[in-house]
Amino acid sequence: MCVPVPSCRPECFKHTLIKSAMSGCGSWCVSATGSNSCHRKDDSLANKIGTDLETIEKRLEDLEKKVFVENGETPHLIVELKTKAEHLKEKLEGLEHLSWLGLFKNMNMGTAHPFWDHRSSTTKMDTYRKRVYEKFKVMSQVQLTQEVREQLKKPTFDNWQWDDSEMLILLRQMFVDLGLVSKFNISMPVLFNWLFQIYTKYNHVPFHNFKHCFMVSQMMYGLIWLIDLPSKLEPLDVLTLLTAAICHDLDHPGYNNAYQINARTELALRYNDISPLENHHCAVAFEILESKETNIFAQIPKDQFRKLREGMIRCILSTDMAKHNEILHTFKSVVPHFDFSDKEHRAVLYMVLMKMADISNEARPLEVASPWLDCLLTEFFNQSDMEKLEGLPVAPFMDRDKVTKPSSQIGFIKFVLLPLFESVGQLFPQIDADVIEPVRKALAYYTEMQQAIEEGKKSKDSTGSKHNGITT
């Protein structure tokens, strides 16, 4: 899971969590106020406390060793103190983007570097998830202001400013604002349970984690509004698209299909090397829906559920990049005479929208997209390192010895992103400014970066160095 370390940038929106006195229920409301700039100091209170916590931890460790040597065991009191210190430290790390009192959020603060700690234990993750659940439960009566709800519809939305429990609230809001809760009689407690169960099924990996799930879902949500799909499609189709986006990478292990097949993993054997990960994501999604407590489709008639299930499976399976060219070619062939009443036309559109949302990071502002690239490369490099150890084939674009940030993006944007996005833009011109143009700018940015790297190498090679009058 990638956790951001915020940095400053101008034109920030300050979002204040205000304890509501409405009916004495103690619910939370989110409001927004404009701000021209934000200022963060390295000597912040949180940083000072973090330093103090390290000192406390060191003193506790020394005391524990001393007592253990003298008595042969660690007293319960010291174990309890260590646990409390660790808990407080994790709490501070998890709430870096909040003020010390946890009362305000700067939505556009920007991000420095994502966080990825592969050493986190299962116990720590269980403890963290429990805290997410408790906060999600406390905030279950949250009411978002209209400004936040409008921001949620935009491709510029910055996930790094929201923690996991808050993103769960935002996902819930998507169902509410699209009218899906009322149209399909979805129980709010069941929606709560389903969303948290979805959350627990995303693994603690660098890229394909819950935050990625949220970002893909948020882009799908933004496209639904930008294209005005509710006026063109049936409500069931909109429900299918949003739900597929949320479920599209469930239980992703952080190793792609090529690794699964080459390593002959259980998933590859189970699905006969045919989109093993995507088939697994689908299976997990519908396993969750088997429980009465998490079945958000319980009130949907059987014939509609069958149609929804087919649509979800089609969308999730389409995210296998091995099928990219085939799907794009089919879509391009129907664009000139696209007909929303044609079932096959709608089916290929849903796949293309799903693919578009899945690989849309470069359509976002650089300060949002760049940390995601760091996460992706970390996951790629983890896999290629493992492949080298196991003697498996290594894809050049995943090899840490051959890849740079610009080299990883230039070809991908030029030959994958832009052809896909521009094809959708032919059918929906309204997405050009908000979604396609940022991708063009990203290509220009990485091309310039690559040129600078190459010029730097040429300059270094041509200059050389001299020792005792001899150029080497």
Helix and strand topology:
Elements: E1 12-19, E2 28-35, H1 45-71, H2 76-94, E3 104-106, H3 122-138, E4 143-144, H4 146-151, H5 164-177, H6 180-183, H7 188-200, H8 210-227, H9 235-247, H10 257-262, H11 266-270, H12 276-289, H13 302-317, H14 324-334, H15 343-358, H16 366-390, H17 405-427, H18 432-463, E5 466-467, E6 470-471
Parallel strand pairs: 2-4
Antiparallel strand pairs: 1-2, 1-3, 5-6
Descriptive report:
With 472 residues, the chain is mostly helical. The chain contains 18 helices and six strands. It has helices spanning 45-71, 76-94, 122-138, 146-151, 164-177, 180-183, 188-200, 210-227, 235-247, 257-262, 266-270, 276-289, 302-317, 324-334, 343-358, 366-390, 405-427, 432-463, and strands at 12-19, 28-35, 104-106, 143-144, 466-467, 470-471. A four-stranded mixed sheet has the order 3-1-2-4. It has a two-stranded antiparallel sheet with strand order 5-6. Strand 1 (12-19) and strand 2 (28-35) form a beta hairpin. The longest helix has 32 residues, at 432-463. The relative contact order is 0.09.
Question: Main beta sheet, described?
Answer: 4 strands, mixed
Q: How far do the termini sit from each other?
A: 47 Å
> How big is the Rg?
24 Å
Low-pLDDT stretches are 1-50, 92-119, 466-472
Strand line-up of the largest beta sheet: 3-1-2-4
The total of helices stands at 18
Number of beta strands: 6
Give the averaged pLDDT, no decimals.
83
Q: Helicity range of the residues?
A: 55-70%
N-to-C SSE string, H for helix and E for strand: EEHHEHEHHHHHHHHHHHHHHHEE
How much β-strand is present in the residues?
5-15%
State the secondary-structure class. mainly alpha
Which shape, going by the Cα principal axes?
globular
